[in-house]
Amino acid sequence: MLDINAIFGENFPDRLMIVQADRVLEMHTPPFPPDAPAIIPNVDPCQLASLRDMLGGVYPPDHPVEWIGESDRQSLSLKNIADVAGSRHGTLLVHALPEGSSFELFQEVIAHLRAPDGCPWDRKQTHGSLRPYLLEETYEALTALDAEDPGKMAEELGDLLLQIVLHAQIGSETGTFRMTDILRGIHDKIIRRHPHVFGDVVVHDEGGVLVNWERLKAEERAVNGEPEKGMLDGVPVALPALTQAQEIQERAARVGFDWQDIEPVRRKILEELGEVDMAGDSVEREKELGDLLFAVVNLVRWHGVDAESALRETNQRFRNRFSYIEKRSRQTGKPLLQMSLEEMDVWWEEAKDLE
Known about the structure:
The chain is about 60% helix and about 5% strand. By secondary structure, the protein is an alpha+beta fold. The protein folds into four domains: about 5-95, Methyltransferase, Cobalt-precorrin-4 Transmethylase, Domain 2 (2-Layer Sandwich), CATH 3.30.950; about 105-190, Orthogonal Bundle (Helix Hairpins), CATH 1.10.287; about 240-305, Orthogonal Bundle (Helix Hairpins); about 315-355, no CATH class. It has a five-stranded mixed beta sheet with strand order 1-2-5-3-4. Strand 3 (about 65-70) and strand 4 form a beta hairpin. The chain is extended.
């Protein structure tokens, strides 16, 4: 019989999770909040390597754990738990991460901000007033992704999570929805739309997954009594134009509305470029330029590249190079307006060489 009081003595924690080893090993991520200590009883030593690998997705390699056997107790780091002495079953004690590392306590922080004794600014916010911040944080997260900066990614994704939890808290206060509704809804949707993972449906490749995804979405709409929608109706019109164009093309391709190889895609760009040159007036030229952009996005899609990300990266490269030209202009004391294109192009090439 496991004596929990003996494990903690006078330092008994205010929160404690106890989960059997077999249950933990069924999971791909720990089924307990990391800022609370967890006891995993009935661990077979041969399970420790698997536990280490699974727990390593949340806890750092040097995180303290303890192995409690029948007559001994060993303090270890997570990375070393497979090295415990002895061959009998024991208990693994996983110590807590610092406060603030669990989703539940983050929800508490946001609820406190919205409470009567919280922050006046946060208490004033509504779904509508927070809309621009949600959009801004989304783009800042994308910028961090484009920069491939892990530290910045973690920071910006945290800012994005803040917006989601704020909306959930407002929904809870108004009685319209709660965080549990959000989590249960997306949990059920993901399982329902992945029967090839959680059920017995067989798909052979990514294309089969996407086709099955669209079929399941159509079935959901029918069950919910929603009017039948076309495949493109689900593409949000608020998306950036490049993203919207690529999503439209990808959805059409799922049902075979696509060329068989890339050559017609290339020819279409040249065709659209010719139509731009032949446009009779500015209205027609604008239309043909739109068709040209759409055709270029299709080429990007065929190469397996995200058009929005590719253009964002190009924009950033241009900004960096042009900033270098401005810097060299200040260094030489010659204003840009007094320089020729050829002079500026020399510094442009210098900036490229420095990348």
